[in-house]
Amino acid sequence: MHHFVESIGARQSAETILNDAIQTCLLIPPLWDLRNFVAVNPFLGFASQPFSQAARVLTDRLDAQSLPVLADYQARWRMGEFGPEDLASAAARAGFDPTRLEAILEGRERMPLRPSLTPLTLAERIDQARGTDWRDQTTRAAARWCAVYASDGGRFVGVARQRLYPSWREFAQTDRSLEIGGLRGFRRWVGTLPETAEAALVELSQRHGLDGPERLARFHRLLGGLFGWASFLRRYAWERDPNDPGDVLDLLAILLALDVAVAECCGINTISSDSDAHHLTPRMVEDEAIRVLLQDAWEDGVARRLLGRLVAPPSRTEAKPNRPRVQAVFCIDVRSEPLRRHLEAVASDIETRGFAGFFGVALAWRSEGKTDARCPVLLKPGVTVEHRVATSELSNRPRAGAVAAQLQNAPASAFSFVEILGPAYGLKLTRDALALGDAGSSCCGEHTGGFQLDHAELSRQAQLDLAVGILQNMGFADRFARLILLCGHESHSANNPHAAGLDCGACGGHGGAINARVAAALLNDPAIRTGLVQRGWSLPSDTHFLPGVHDTTTDEVRLLDLERLPQSHRDDLERLAADLKEAGRRVRQERAADLGLANRPLSLLDRRFKRRAADWSEVRPEWGLARNCAFIAARRERTRGVNLEGRAFLHEYDAARDPEQSVLTLILTAPMVVASWINLQYFASTIDQATFGCGDKALHNRVGGLGVVLGNGGDLRGGLAVQSVHDAQGRWFHEPLRLQVVVEAPREKIERVLAAHPSVYDLVRGGWVRLFALDPNSDQLALYVPERGWEAWRCQDPAQARPAFSPDSTSR
């Protein structure tokens, strides 16, 4: 068998083959488990390449869509979401004739097409020639072993814990499933394979004459067949070192081995001319270069309307109002924008600010034997916070719920846990569906109970440094209210494997309650206050930091650690609670139509929102971060009173207070990058559910706590569900727009940060985000155009601007 196609060229060097294999593995993005679900840019491996180039590669190798098709742009054009002026500006940047773009949109000229050559795997070529389904059988076989391996199941089937490929090779020699399916002699054949993944990749590539670009494309296509499992395996190595392929290299060796096995075990020593014709399958696809121009034009139209609402800056010499009654710091999450807007409308003496929802406290939360990182995955926890469980808390804990959760997450019982628990669990489901339970109940002491910082990790001096960083990065200076609310956020839903995906992206897919509590406790500490004075921070003695958490499903804010509030602030607390209640009511009224609750009596809306959170049959408890399209780092004076439709991440930033650009560097290298990950995950899940989304929630089955599959097996599904980006009629709810990043700072300061951080600069010059500079002393905007520099930008007159998003504009 080893003589298979040896006549095809000379053997390639082992070093070149392994380098190609590693580079292909690094194109795969990481994927987190359900408990720690993190929004990930699915194009992360292509971040150093231009957006249009990556789109072309993904089309050719994976049959994946990375851009809307012409029909979608034509629908937006007919709806007036962009016009001739937008076409002209987008075309001018690329040196293209705008009249041609307009003719294409109006159907007077054909869309330019290009040939796409897809390098099929051996199994696909044989399937096309013989009508078999070996590609599906082999990928399912690999998926089954990934599930066993990732859940540590190998130890239950007699395979010692080792790397993925050797453990598969050992087990595959006893697994009869593929032989039963018709792959004769497969177990004996596996025994002839090299013992390491690296050796297998080299030998099998040489045996089949894979060389040059074809090898890279074939490797990528093989991994694309198990994109979800490859991404899951990528996470662990990525966290250690983004340039380490880890177990993905082993998975590639398994997939290549299974692909070769189909040919060799079926006795196909040469590929027939019949299947050879399908070696490269040519097809005509819409040119990505033209679609990128149309994408630019569409985004120009949306940006002109949305960014045109930013208000002119107040004079630097203009005195600010008297001391605010409350300053409320919310997460930059787009769901905070409506609540901030309504809260300031309810009470003009309240100021709000935006900051990443971990509040600058990168912590590891240890509770009930589990430890979770509560910070963006781009950061590492700097301190461990231990949950201190009181005796009363232990005695009152609902054990049935804990048992149900364990059963639901266990691979062996995930499909039958309702039957195991019997009628008692059925009654619970009925109770939840009727909204008779408490949708906002918390667990693990994140809302209540004591906590203890690990002082061995965080000295008093380090705590003081952390406190200074929190105040500085939040944009505080010399004005402090009596009450400063630090408001994290979380979501609540029932029977939802991806519930963590609705929590805080800045907290690693968890709620931000514990981060807010720790930050508030730190800033209220008398010893820290004394140290802050020595550092030049003059906080009034009556300033108290109060933690809270915003439930984004119901838009209720729960205020925490009230037992620590001084008696002197009780009146302040009551007024704030009333203001938050009214603001939440207004937000629910604003959101009602999008959730199918339009024209409901206001008296019933509260209950309907709570019912959605507790209803185990609800596939869309909330819309999450759908429609996100902008990131604005600016003074709140720029956006206060402006309706940004829940579409913008809002981060407080005052360039005049940041002479060394340290805060700007932090914003562009952390929260902006996290926002771009979220944005591109929504973008890709909307464009191509088959590759980048996780499909219909009604068809999901859990693989323990690892992830979900559709139906009874196959690839692990990453990304967002259909119900998170499409409405009930299957039309787009989320608009696939790249992140429009607006920074209120001089251009030269922005350029210095980009020059010092190439990975961030890659996002900008590659077209993954669009960067605008907002002049701090005027209302002038400039767009950074890759390879051309800054271009003056004219927004639409706010008085003429209609909403940037129209509910009637969904196209699918």
Derived from helix and strand composition plus strand pairing, the structural class reads alpha/beta
Topology, number of strands: 19
Mean pLDDT across residues: 88
- The radius of gyration computed from the alpha-carbon positions, rounded to a whole number of angstroms, is 28 Å
Which regions are unreliable across 5 or more consecutive residues at pLDDT < 50? 1-11, 153-160, 270-278, 392-400, 411-418, 439-443, 807-812
- How many angstroms does the end-to-end distance come to? 50 Å
Query: So what's the overall shape?
Result: globular
Number of domains: 4
Strand order of the largest sheet: 13-12-16-17-18-19
How much helix, percentage-wise, in residues? 40-55%
Largest sheet: 6 strands, mixed
